[in-house]
Description:
Blueprint: E1 3-10, H1 16-24, H2 32-37, E2 44-50, E3 54-60, H3 68-75, E4 80-86, H4 93-104, E5 110-115, H5 122-136, E6 146-148, H6 157-168, E7 181-183, E8 186-190, E9 194-200, E10 205-207, E11 211-215, E12 219-228, E13 231-232, E14 235-237, E15 241-247, E16 259-261, E17 269-278, E18 286-287, E19 290-296, E20 299-307, E21 312-313, E22 318-329, E23 336-341, E24 347-355, H7 368-377, H8 380-390, H9 398-404, H10 409-421, E25 425-429, E26 434-437, H11 438-458, E27 465-466, H12 467-473, H13 483-492, E28 497-499, E29 502-504, H14 514-530, H15 540-544, H16 548-560, E30 564-568, E31 571-574, H17 575-592, E32 595-596, H18 597-604, H19 608-620, E33 624-627, E34 630-633
Parallel strand pairs: 1-3, 1-4, 4-5, 5-6
Antiparallel strand pairs: 2-3, 7-16, 8-9, 9-15, 10-14, 11-12, 11-16, 12-13, 12-15, 17-22, 17-24, 18-21, 19-20, 19-23, 20-22, 23-24, 25-26, 27-29, 28-29, 30-31, 32-34, 33-34
Helix pairs in contact: 8-10, 14-16
Amino acid sequence: MKHLILGTAGHVDHGKTALVRALTGVDTDRLEEEKKRGITIVLGFAEMELPGGIQVGIVDVPGHERFVNQMLAGVGGVDMIMLVVAADEGVMPQTREHFDICRLLNVRKGLTVITKTDLVDTEWLALVQQDVEGLIEGTFLEGRPVCPVSAKTGDGMGALKKSLAEIAGEVEDRDSRGILRLPVDRVFTMKGFGTVITGTLLSGNVKNGEAVEILPGGLQARVRGMQVHSKSVEEALAGQRTALNLQGVEKESIRRGDTVTVPGLLTPTYMVDAVVTLLPDVEKPLKNRSLIRFYIGASRGVGNIVHLDREQLMPEEQGYAQIRLREPVVAMGGDRFILRSVSENRTIGGGEILDPQPRKHKTSDPSVVPSLEVLKEGSPEEKAVVFLRHAGFSGMDLAGFRCRLPLAKGTAKKILQRLRERGEAVTLLADTLHLLHMDHLKKIEKKTLSVLTGYHRSKPLEPGIPKAELASRLSTMIGEKVFPSILNHLSRGGKVIVEENRVRLPEHKVCLTSEEEEAARKIEALYKEAGLAPPYSRKLSGELGLEESLVAEILRHLVERKSLTHIQGDLFMDTKALEAGREKVRAVLEGEGEISVAGMRELLGLTRKYLIPLLEYFDGIGFTARKGDVRVLR
C-alpha cells in the first residue's frame, strides 16, 4: 500500500480546513480559539484513502501571516500540496508566500483548489481562475488540475478526489531503507501512556520496542507503541504520519523541531554548506553575514549567512553560502530549508543543504566553490570523493557518508567499494568501512618517512622507533584508533618495516663505527665476565671513559642482539649467564616444588643487590610466581 503526505497551502480564511473536513470528515481545528476565530492557528492532521488504496495523511497548515512558523513546521515533509484559493478573494499575499515556500522546499507534485465557489458567479470564478493561472505559470503546478469546489455544497469534490488520486499515483515512494528521521511537530502526554510525539517519517522505518535517540539533545528512549493513521501498528514506514509513544523521556525534555533517529548515527550541527536562492520579489540584496531565520524540518533557528562566491545575493539569484547557526540543528545532505528575514518577518529565500557537517570556510580558499559545485551537480561517487577529501586525515566511515548522502546502506557501500577499487581511497577499519582518501594517505606516508629518517639519523644504533613514539609524533594527523591500520598499510606497501614493537625504514641497518664496535666489545666482555653480578650501567661511562648517551645506545644495541638482557632500571645481565642461572632455578623447582629467597641466594651466589631485581624479573616474565615467602614455577 502506498503512503504519502498531502499538505494544504493558502491565505488565511480561504477554506483550507473546511476543504479537509469535506474530504475526510475530520475537523482539524482542535483549539477553542480556532473554533471561536474561525481560523487555523496550529497544525491540524487528518487522513483519507484515495482510489487505488493510497493512504494519505493530510497536514492542514495555518494561513495567517502570524502563523507562518506553524506552516513551515508542517509543510517540510509533504509529498504534494493543495494550493487553496478562495473564489471570493482570489490570490492573496499568503497565497504567494505559501506557494513560494512550497517551491523553495522543492515540492514537485500538487494541484490548485478554488474554494467557496458557492459564493460567486461563473464570471467572477473565471476571473479568479485567470488570477490563479498567472500565479502558477512556469511552476510545477502549471498544467496540473485547477479544481473549483464548494466544501459547503459538495460541488466539485468528486472531481477533486479523482485528481488527487491521479497525482498521488505519480509520487515516488520515500526510502524506508534510509536513516530513520522523524522531525517532531507535536509532543504531548496521554494518561496511562506517557509521552507521545507525532511527525512525518521522512526516511527509514521504526518498529515497536526499538531504541531511538532524540536530537539535538541526545535523549535516549524506547518505542513502546505507535500509530499510523490512528491505528496501532508494529512498524511505521517512510512517508507516514506517525505517532510514537516513547518510554524513558518526559514531555518537557522534547520540543518541536527535535528529530527522532537511530542512536549514535546523526550528529547535530551548527553549520551547513548550501546553495541558496533569493526570491525575486525581495526588495533588497542579502548581504554577507546578514542575520537570518533558518527553518528546516519542523525546527527553526537564527544564524548568519556567509556568502562563499559573492559579497551579496541579489533577488532571483542563486549562490553558495555557509550558514552559521546559534543553536544546533539536525540535517542531512539534500535537505531543503527556508530563510526568513529577522526584521521584516517574511520569507526571503531558501535552498538545499550540500554538506551538513562542513569545516568553517575561509572565503579566500579557492577550493571551496568548486567542491560545492560538485556537491550540487555531481554523481554520488563524485560527491563521496569530495566528502572524503574534506574529512582530512581522520577519514570517514560508512555512517558518516550516509549522513551526508541520503542513500540506502547497500548503495552507499557499493559506492565506497568502487572508490577503493579505483585506488582513490584505502580502508582503515573494515568493520565500519572507514576510508581515507589516497591524497591524505600520501601526506601521512611522507610525514612518517620523515619522522623515521630523523629518528634513524639521531639514534643510528637503535633498530627502529617504538610504535608508541611514532603514534605520538603522528597524533596531530591521525588518531590512535586508525594508527595500526595506517602502519599496516605502509608495511604492506613496503614503505616501512615493522619488527615486534618497533618501526624502521627498509634500508635502515644498525651499523657501528669502528670506535663504537670496540666500545661494544669491551662492554659485552665486561658483562660476560661479571655473570649475574654485573656493574650497573650508570657506572660504565666513568669506568670506560665513554659518553653516557653512547653507552646507553650500545646497551640497547646489545639487547637487540640478545647479547644482554635488560633486568630493570639500569641493570643489565649477560644473556647466557642469565639463562644458565634460570636453568639452575628450574631444576630445583622441578625437583622440590619451591625455593626460598635464602635458597635462591645460596643457589646463585648473589647478594640482595642483584637477587631481588632478578627475582622480580623472573616473576615479571612469567617464569616464577611468589607464594608467601617462596617462589614456585608459574
